[in-house]
Amino acid sequence: MPIKQRIMMISTHGYVAAEPELGKPDTGGQVVYVLELSKCLGRIGYQVDILTRRFEDQPRSEKLSQRVRVLRFPCGGAGFIPKETLCEHIPEWVANVRRFIEAKRLRYSFINSHYWDAGLAGQSLANKLNIPHLHTPHSIGSWKRDNMDGDPEDLERKYNFRKRIREEKVLYDECDGLVATTTQQRDILCNGEYDVPREKIHVVPPGYDDTRFFPVSRASRMTLKQELGLEGRLVLALGRMAHNKGYDLLIQAMPIVFKRIKDARLLLALGSTEPSSREREQIGELKELAVKLGVADRVIFRDYISDEELPDYYRIADVFALSSRYEPFGMTAVEAMACGTPTVITTEGGLWELLTWGLEAIYANPFDPEAFGHAICAVLQDSRITGQLAKYGSQKARARFTWTGVAQQILSHIERLPSRVSIEHDSTEEREADSETWLEEVCLLAT
What are phi and psi of 95, to 5 degrees? Predict the structure, then answer.
């Protein structure tokens, strides 16, 4: 396979690594998205450099595959910096990246940045190096601000919304193209505070790894459930511990379920590998809520689930519930669907608009716990609905949300951007130079 030009993938915040520590601060679905998309582009034949921030004791470089590597550049000191304030240090990060690129004479076909902090970096590098820039917001500042509960001034201090939205507006105006993960995101970008031309936005849903997430037989599901020490009909929710995930709303929906389904249990697998004091406090609050509602004996709390165990947890569930207060997409729901697990999802996000109600999934508003509870009951009480959702949900996941499909859509959109974008093969001389300098570059980073 001929080696094509190099792609710069930028994701500056969180713990970006070949084996990401999912659940750590600012490390979740977006990191998975960037890694999986990069590996898929590598399999197609592109050289991909994932540029991120270096902090703590992380290595300067890391090889993911033959054609994909992570390159880490410092800024703002050696400690972790939350994504809400990392923007203050992006100019330093850009300067370090630019020096490296110019010293190594690297040429990139295009930049794909992820989230607004990386978008600031990507646009700065695009302007300085004359490289086309495709930005993927993942989350949009105005939408997040408008869908968060709490005192507006407290939220402003924590999330830096005014600066974020101002910088997003400039970024969206200057970049060559935008990737929205849902039609809802596209509509937000086109209207209100951003006013992005519709033709500049491409809707490409996130993907999942179909070599890991796939259905198994009912007998295998029952065996897995026994091996994990669980019984009864399980409603599963999992992910990092965050208020917007709506686990409290789900607990409030469960009394209706428990009243009608005598062997039903709610399994909450929450948190991270190294939970903070705030995370532990939030989980404690959820346990107190379960006690207050009189359902504590039927709510099972488990810690963070490793990436290796994740598919089997989806498979043991009788229903997967995504009850987020707001959710840009909802990748966990797609993974559950891919495993053949009936799924009930929030209408406070983008995924539900891509699915057919009653055929591929059921959706309800989690702010109406009674309605959300009835939606879960509908699945657990009717085997025909269960079978239909399991069959057509997994078919929809395979047809629409695999990483190969995502990569091809991204490349097709890049090819339609302004004429300065050119995705061509490297010359033989360039390919030989790349192969000769690969280890040299890594060694340079390690010194």
Answer: -60, -40
Identity of the residue numbered 18: A
State the pLDDT confidence band at 418, using cuts at 50, 70 and 90: low
Alpha-carbon span 100 to 404, nearest angstrom:
31
Name the DSSP class of 87. G
CB atoms within 10 A of CB 269: 17
282 and 198 share one domain: no
* Per-residue model confidence as pLDDT tens digits over 371-410: 999 999 999 999 999 999 999 999 999 988 999 889 998 9
Average pLDDT over residues 310-334: 93
Q: For the whole model, what pTM was predicted?
A: 0.72
Number of structural domains (the chain) is 2
Segments forming the whole domain that contains residue 282: 218-400
Angle (nearest 5°) at CA 430 between 425 and 433: 145
| Tokens describing residue 409 | 């859509």
Residue 163 and residue 37 in one domain: yes
Residues in a beta bridge with 112: 9, 134
| Of residues 113 and 348, more confidently modeled | 113
Q: Are 417 and 385 in contact (CB under 8 A)?
A: no
Which has more pLDDT, 272 or 363?
363
Q: Which uninterrupted H or E stretch holds 15?
A: none
Does residue 162 share a domain with residue 279? no
Are 293 and 355 within one domain? yes
Rounded to 10 deg, the angle between the 331-338 and 29-44 helix axes is 60
H helices of 262-355, in order, are 277-292, 310-316, 331-338
Classify strands 61-63 and 68-74 as parallel, antiparallel or unpaired.
Answer: antiparallel
Is pLDDT larger for residue 278 or for residue 260? 260
Tokens of 232: 């009864």
Average pLDDT (272-292) is 91
Q: Does residue 247 form part of some domain?
A: yes
DSSP-derived 3-state class of residue 200: helix
Determine which helix (DSSP H) or strand (DSSP E) holds 256, and give its type and residue range.
helix 247-260
The type of residue at 128 is K
DSSP string, 341-402: --EEEESSBSGGGGS-BTTTBEEE-TTSHHHHHHHHHHHHH-HHHHHHHHHHHHHHHHHH-B
Whether 35 and 180 map to the same domain: the answer is: yes
Q: Are 10 and 51 in contact (CB under 8 A)?
A: yes
